[in-house]
Amino acid sequence: MKNINAINSTFPSPTAPQKAGKPGGGFADQLKDAINSTNEAQVKADQAVEQLHSGQGGSLHEVMLSLEKADISMRLFVQLRNKAVDAYQEIMRMNV
């Protein structure tokens, strides 16, 4: 019995799944948050490039990291848009 209890203690105890996002927030709120975070990443990357170009500070490494974060964020958002457009087109093709 000791061995079973020892094994059980290594696994996390099951808990109820928690809701993702803000309470009461719907799809529109999550979409707005995604748009805002993508925009913020783009603005931060632009500012980092301007600071590096003007010599005000920041290393090339930090600038490249901010550019890559902005790029990944934009790619994700474009893929979300593509999926939403595909879903809309599929719905429009349905016969009622």
Automatic annotation (TrEMBL):
One of the Pfam families matching this protein, by short name: FliE
Compartment(s) of residence: Bacterial flagellum basal body
Swiss-Prot/TrEMBL GO biological process terms: bacterial-type flagellum-dependent cell motility
Composition skew (Polar residues), residue ranges: 1-13
Stretches that traverse the bilayer: none
Statement: the UniProt record of this protein carries the keyword Transmembrane helix: no
Start and end residues of each stretch annotated as Disordered: 1-31
Entry keywords, A to Z: Bacterial flagellum, Cell projection, Cilium, Flagellum
GO CC term, one of those recorded: bacterial-type flagellum basal body
InterPro entries: FliE
MF-aspect GO terms: cytoskeletal motor activity; structural molecule activity
Family, as annotated: Belongs to the FliE family.
HAMAP family given in the database record: FliE
Protein known as: Flagellar hook-basal body complex protein FliE
Record lineage: Bacteria, Pseudomonadati, Thermodesulfobacteriota, Desulfuromonadia, Desulfuromonadales
